[in-house]
Amino acid sequence: MALLEIRNVTRRFGALEAVKDVSLAIEAGEFFTLLGPSGCGKTTILRMIAGFDAPDEGEILLDGVSLAGVPPERRPLHTVFQSYALFPHMTVAGNIAFPLEMAKESAPAIRRRVAETLALVHLEDKAASFPHQLSGGQKQRVALARGLVNKPRLLLLDEPLGALDAKLRVEMQIELIALQREVGITFVFVTHSQQEALALSHRIAVMKDGRVEQLDEPDRLYTQPANRFVADFIGKINLLEVEVTASSKVLLGLHAPGLGEIAATDPRPIAVGERGVFALRPELIRVHGHKESADLKNRFEGRVRELLYLGDVTLYKVELANGVPVEALMPNAAPGRAKFHEVGDAVWICWRHDAGVFLRD
């Protein structure tokens, strides 16, 4: 039995359906992420789990028991917000101790648990400091410590890294992974950052307009998106309009208007004549200065229109003969060599027949 079950939950705000018949099962010890653009319903789901809001239809169960009517303070979970919500007049130790004091734990038990939790987030030397004396990353660790100190069944994290700069966000992502692994508590994480979700999660539910579009492990979301929205939302991708011209267990033939034939594979039964998009990640495309890689069936001529040097890689924007733009990501492997092609260069792009995925419209 799953630790947390969301069964056919719908939440309306007037005429707006913020969450539409969503069902999820979250396992004990899992780092589970709700991912999607602003307004997709992910924070509404988190608020309903926390008890700050209630579903109009459906139910939410913890350990098989409905949470309907259970107030937030009586639910065995804690929420960490983007704003940290620390008490400015309390020390770090005081902030962390607060949930235990509200639970009327004994003074010795509180001192012991606060000391253990400070060590867990590596803030032993900041126990007597006040929030205004801390960096953004330290404040975030205090907020996490306060959420973990009473050992909740669930820790809900609502865009907890959103206020941090890019470098600190990456550092905190690494810390979050290690922390979750060490404490073993189930994390339910809300974010609109695809990179953050892919880096942190055991499983991800991608949401759009109140519905779950795909629920899967990060690598499957990235390599096998269920539809055009998921493909386009998760990382960079090229989407080419195509029509199926041949279909078998070993080969999928696709025709891209103005471009030509594309060789692909797909284990699903797909009918000749179906229309959709061919989704291809930029890092799976090679860019060459002449027509080589004869072993690759997919080879098309184009011209470099833009390039973006990113240090270890260069992103090339290539315009194909039919005017369609394609992005290719090439490693800068040669020492001292920043890029292989210049804007305006005629090039060939190529990829393996099993590199992309066909998505129905």
Commentary on this structure:
This protein has helices at residues 42-50, 92-102, 107-120, 136-148, 166-183, 194-200, 218-223, 228-233; strands at 4-13, 16-26, 31-35, 57-62, 65-66, 77-81, 154-158, 186-191, 203-208, 211-216, 238-247, 252-256, 260-264, 275-280, 286-288, 298-309, 313-320, 325-331, 346-351, 357-360. With 361 residues, the protein is of the alpha+beta class. The relative contact order is 0.11. Strand 11 (238-247) and strand 12 (252-256) form a beta hairpin. 23% of the residues lie in helices and 35% in strands. The protein folds into two domains: 4-231, 3-Layer(aba) Sandwich (Rossmann fold), CATH 3.40.50.300; 236-360, RNA polymerase II/Efflux pump adaptor protein, barrel-sandwich hybrid domain (OB fold (Dihydrolipoamide Acetyltransferase, E2P), Beta Barrel), CATH 2.40.50.100.
In short, what is this structure?
The protein has 361 residues and is α+β, with helices and mostly antiparallel strands. The protein has eight helices and 20 strands.
